[in-house]
Amino acid sequence: MDAPPFPFGSTPPPLSSPPVIAPPPKPRKSRGWMIISIILAVLLFFAGLVIVGQMVIHTFSFNHNYKTASAREVGPKLEECILEDNDSQNKIAVITVDGVISGHDYDDNGNNAVDVIQAQLDRASDDKRVKAVILKVDSPGGEVLASDDIYKAIRAFETDEAGENGKPGRKGKPVICSMGSLAASGGYYISSGCRWIVANELTITGSIGVIMHGYNYRGLMDKVGIAPTTFKSGKFKDMLSGEREPSEIPPEEHAMVQGLIDETYEKFKGVVADGRTAAHELNKKQGAALADNWTDFADGRVLSGKQALDLGLVDELGDFDDTVDRALDITHLDSANLVEYRERYDLSNFLSMFGQSSKAHDLKLDFGVEAPKLQAGLMYFLYQP
Fold first, then answer.
1. How confident is the model over 330-356, as pLDDT tens digits?
2. Which residue of 119, 131, 314, 344 pairs with 197 in a disulfide if CB–CB is 3.0 to 4.6 A?
3. Which positions are catalytic?
4. Helix (H) or strand (E) holding 223
């Protein structure tokens, strides 16, 4: 049927149009990768600047009457830091010996304590503005060989020795020792090579002696049912082994080990006598001379700073400021800037991490107390309370 006509004057209903469906919004592109790319590009740019800058400095470095960079091509990378600026052209370098002296404890760059101290002395020797070195010692001692190496480095620094391969020697500069709370055994061994020794009245020092420590764990092995099997080429090839019954250790072995201890002990006393005698000849009446009976107190006992002064093992009682004053007096200076050399870390250290073994990245827990890392079979100049 046909639709009925609209009444006259009425408005026809609007035609309904189909709803307009908006297109789905385009997914927003993630900008995270762009931010990461920008950050990496900036880091690479600055890394390139650092590398180029180091190459330029290394290539075009020149001498302003003193060297501003380490003269060592291999070893610790050091930079000079100002501890106290006294507006002076002269410098006094401060070198710190802290903790157990060891030739086996390595830093992040693979350098041991002897390497770092030797590099610092070389840096102070190369700089003509450095007039003296203050050796801050706060150590119970450590390995015999490492202590002796540091002592020799100090003595060589103080004397005008001939260079190697016909090269001219370096001019000697005085080393003044400032003892902290503890400068015993190997800590005193290295101090005895200094031109002047300042100890606090309460400093623990002395402990002149040698120790070799080990454990015999054969009884424990017997309890758990472990029997060692040893093949050796000679009677004493397993000397100092903790697997043997005490009755199996021949008396000759005891005598030989004690002979090594006694020989090293005589070396210790000789170092003290030589170092203190040489210092007293330079210091004249200002310094302290070794007492005639000082060897009676070189039996491993510890001494206070005052007792050490009475025996002539140190020259003066005082603190670090007194040590600085003494260094100025010995070098005939009115003032000097105090500087120290710290290991420098740059991009090469960061990149070298990727080539290190996993041992270099082991996590370490700090319990507030650091136990000495003693190795079996090694002799120590060490004070162990």
1. 999 999 999 999 887 655 555 554 444
2. 314
3. 185, 237
4. helix 218-224
